[in-house]
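Bench log. Compound arrived from synthesis this morning; before running ITC I wanted a structural hypothesis for how zinc ion sits in the protein. Inputs:
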Amino acid sequence: MVNDKLTREQEDYIIKIFEFEESFGITKLTDLSKILNYSTGAINDEIKRFEKMGIVVRIPYKGIILSEYGKKIAENVTRKHRIAEAFLYYVLNVPWEKCHLLSSDMEHAVNGQLEKYILKKLKNLKQCPHGNPFQITNTKDEKKLLEAELNVSYIINRITFEESDILIKYKTFGILPGEKIKILEKNEFGALVNTKKGKFILDNDDLLIIRVKE
Ligand SMILES: [Zn+2]
C-alpha cells in the first residue's frame, strides 16, 4: 500500500486536494482551509509536511498540485471514499446528499478483505452515487458543463466536487447523475440551465464541477 503511514486526517486532506484539482485544476490553500475548517496556519503546516513527503508541489502565488506520487496516493484513498459512499447509499440507504459526509468514518476502514466483500455486495457497480468512478482515471467521454453547447440536452455524468451544501443544492435543482440538463443562456459569471425541476442559475464553479456526456 502506498499510503500506510498517513493519518485519517491526512487522507481527508488528500481526497479534498484531489477534488479541488480535478474540478478547478489547482488547490488554493485559502479554499482548502475554508472547506476543511482548519486555520490557514494548520493547513500550511500540513502542506509543508506533504511537500517533504513528495505528495504535493507548490505553485508560487497560486496553490498546490499533486505530484505523480501524490496522485497515486489520491487514487487509493479516493477509491476507498467512493466505495464507502456507494455502500452507504445502495446498501444502507443513506440519502444521496449525506453519504459523502457520513462516509468519512467508514472509508478509512475500506481495505483488503473488507473492500472485496463490499465490492461483491455492490455487484458490478463502478462509481459512487455522485457518478465518480472507483478507479479515478476512468473518466472518458465526458465534458465540463462549461464546455457544453447552448440549447443541447446532455446527460449529467458526475459531480466532481462533493460538499454537503453543494450536493443539497444540486438535489433540489434536479442535478443528479443520469438526469438531463441543458444550458439556455451563458455569460461571464455562469449560466441559466434547465433540468426536470425547472430553470436555475449556476455559477462558473458549478459549470466546472458538473460533468456531462451526450
Ligand atoms: Zn461521491
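What the model suggests: Residues 113 and 138 are 23 Å apart (CA to CA). The radius of gyration is 17 Å.
ITC booked for Thursday regardless.
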